[in-house]
């Protein structure tokens, strides 16, 4: 039932009235809406969205700081969090996919530039990632290059959420990735971390490559 505030003066109310109206507040403002019972149809399209959302959410939970950092920077000054940005963008792009070739390791943040290329050379339980950086803008500093590996899978049924991430001086390429599973296909996202003239941090958008580790 609805609970009035200062009932004699009718300052406000909260709750449901006779299963007809719902009284509540949003951002300090009182509102009333029609009472409805939400439906939960299990359509194929909704299942795709739910599965991709769950997968990206689980990836974020297991993500190391190197993967979270560009998303947190992307969210700076916005109403959303880094987590929400990561889940929203990756769910949207992976929802119709049966692989993670398009997963986004970094969305790009504060004007950072993406690598020109990032090529994988398989090694024993890892990769060497050769990164080609763009020309450095005047006053900017190219700080590091980051590579993050996710075991290749279907985001609709995948259960392999652990991301392995490595950071290296971009001018001391390659990035050496170790400790991965032998003879296993990975999708690797690579991006650049920049320092702007005012000392603030920027990130370039990630680019992807896929290959299989050696024994």
Report on this structure.
- The protein has helices spanning 44-62, 65-75, 82-94; strands spanning 3-5, 12-17, 21-26, 29-34, 107-109, 117-123, 126-132, 141-151, 164-168, 175-177, 185-195, 201-205, 207-212.
- It has three helices and 13 strands; from the N terminus they run ββββαααβββββββββ.
- The mean pLDDT is 88.
- The strands form three sheets. Strands 5, 8, 9, 11, 12 and 13 form a six-stranded antiparallel beta sheet that branches. The protein has a four-stranded antiparallel beta sheet with strand order 1-2-3-4, with no helix packed on it.
- It folds into two domains: 9-34, no CATH class; 48-212, Immunoglobulins (Immunoglobulin-like, Sandwich).
- With 215 residues, it is an alpha+beta fold.
- The chain is flat, with a radius of gyration of 23 Å.
* CATH fourth-tier homologous superfamily of the largest domain: Immunoglobulins
Portion of residues in beta strands equals 35-45%
The H-and-E topology, N to C, reads as EEEEHHHEEEEEEEEE
Tell me, rounded to a whole number, the average pLDDT.
88
Quote the distance from N terminus to C terminus: 65 Å
Main pleated-sheet profile: 6 strands, antiparallel
Any idea what the shape is? Answer: flat
Number of strands: 13
Low-confidence stretches: none
Tell me the radius of gyration: 23 Å
Determine the structural class based on helices, strands and strand pairing. alpha+beta
Instruction: Give helix % range.
Output: 10-25%
CATH class of the largest domain: Mainly Beta
Number of domains: 2
CATH architecture of the largest domain: Sandwich
Please report the number of helical segments. Answer: 3
Quaternary assembly: single chain
CATH topology of the largest domain: Immunoglobulin-like
